[in-house]
Here is the input.
Amino acid sequence: MNRSLQKHYEEIKDLHLRELFKDKSRVKKFTKQAVGITLDYSMNRMTEETLSKLFELAREADLKTEIGRMFRGSKINETEGRAVLHTALRNRGNTPVVVDGKDIMPRVNEVLAQMSEISNKIRAGKWRGFSGKKIKNIINIGIGGSDLGPVMASFGLKHYSQRDLNIKFISNVDATHFVEETYGLDPEETLFIVASKTFTTQETMTNAYTAKSWILAASATESSVAKHFIALSTNKEAVIDFGIDPSNMLEFWDWVGGRYSLCSAIGLPVMINVGVDNFFKLLDGYHQMDNHFKTMELEDNLPVILALIGIWYNNFFAVETSAVLPYDQYLSRFAAYLQQADMESNGKNINKKGEKVNYQTGPIIWGEPGTNGQHAFYQLIHQGTKLIPCDFIGFKESLNPVGDHHQKLMANMFAQAEAMAFGKTTKEVLETETKDEWLAYHKTFEGNRPSNKILMNKLTPEILGSLIALYEHKIFVQGIIWNIFSFDQWGVQLGKVCANRILTEFNSAEVLCHDDSTNAAIKWFRS
Ligand code: G6Q
Here is the structure.
């Protein structure tokens, strides 16, 4: 990918973190802070020279210019001919952002005002169902980008939620999801938010029609639909066709990518859950990180640093995956959210010119909250044959300070990072644990397993916004360096069309012309 970095990699690839940590100023040199986030990247298998070469790589890719193009609204999503302006959705400074000759900020603010009005009404118990009962259950029906963000942030900010409201999410086309989430609920107290940018997605529309029947089974008048459905979409016609009152529709725009849409109308369930003020604080946090990313020199720029570390492992150490390990139960869906954000954005093998790339692009992102992961998959990280860089995410203060839980939680996080980095040599095991050499080999930890520590004071709405934006921009930087389009998702579109063909074949006797395995499966299902 880059000769000078490749040569440098050959020189330092075997250097152990034990060696690197002999430099007593390493942690100071490899720690940066911004907008309430401290990034300690000292436990990475790199030197100052590595970093300076990586920054050079970013400069060669003209990263600063590309950042400017995104924020200005250039149509950088070229295969769909669209601007990429999720940053405008949280542009709390309200500086004009022009798309096709028009400032989009007034519309962004109007939708935020509509969302606020709806949220306040529901939270105050003033939104009533067809029988006059207060709405208590809010069910978001959406999938992918219209689900994972709101799910992650609703869990993430549950501490700030209005507890007498029951926020739920239905995404899977498997009816079990619908049946289980609505089980025992009173339709008279239930409001559905149908979240779909296109309003054509099979899973979402199927669930939405089932929800409509569920409401109509209780009220039997079409006009009740108005009281029990809100739509979040870019497709007004389809919303009207479905029977949702256009005054209950909140708009967003084609320059908002699904997986980047949490700050748009798609964030409505989160706003209902945590209230208008907290939602605006979330946007403030995003905006602070946006400004940091836009203005800060590359060397001090947290998303850039995180991205370059990822490139170092992905493209030089040939690492395939990256683990995200939040030591906070509220962030239990954070890895799942990032999995989509990252893998859908950078899971591409064609460069911007349309040529096949001859280097690795997006990694496999996965993870679970600590300490659960420790009792499950950390074994492989410590002693397996694969190198897995980890992001440890933790907070100084707990939102639930009960006994010494938080101290134990954080002690585990720091201990895991330390053990991964420094391990335990056979000699140390023989000196401290056993005299049996055979056993000592099994108890040896090579160490040199890299990690970042992402440290924050407390999980507030602002800090969650900044943390999400940190990762969003990391993904952007990597896409620029890999020279791929990060904002389209043709692989998702493929899934949307191929299932429809097979669906029609289930109910017809027509001759099947798939491969033999698919034909056999369809016949098995038909029978
Ligand atoms: C996200 C993807 C994808 C999308 C879903 C739902 O970036 O485009 O995950 O969000 O397929 O699409 P709709 O919102 O159009 O239903």
Notes: The mean pLDDT is 97. The pocket of glucose-6-phosphate is lined by residues 143-146, 196-198, 201, 204, 257-259, 344, 489, 492 (CB under 6 Å). The two ends are 52 Å apart (CA to CA). The CA atoms of residues 398 and 406 lie 6 Å apart.
